[in-house]
Amino acid sequence: MEEPINENQLNIELSEEIAEGTYANLAIITHSNSEFIIDFVRIMPGTPKSKVKSRIILTPDHAKRLLHALEDNIAKFESANGTISGGNSNNGMPFNFGGPTAQA
Description:
The chain is an alpha+beta fold. It has two helices and three strands, in the order H-E-E-E-H.
């Protein structure tokens, strides 16, 4: 017997390449009156230049939905795993990775 199809259910395809994900340790957010742009960057120690690995463009409504979804998920994570340290400081970007710098 076939399961009934829910009209509100989304059918989302996730390719193997996208499912692997892309690591980023910095997000730069800019906006105009009609969109929010989030650039995800990977900064690595000893490299003079970093590249944007992914750019997401959202409407203001979707940006606010993303904010609420992140707040909800962080609250659930912290409830199960404890408080996430950091996140409350605006000391600048995390350029100091610690340890010795690479030398050739």
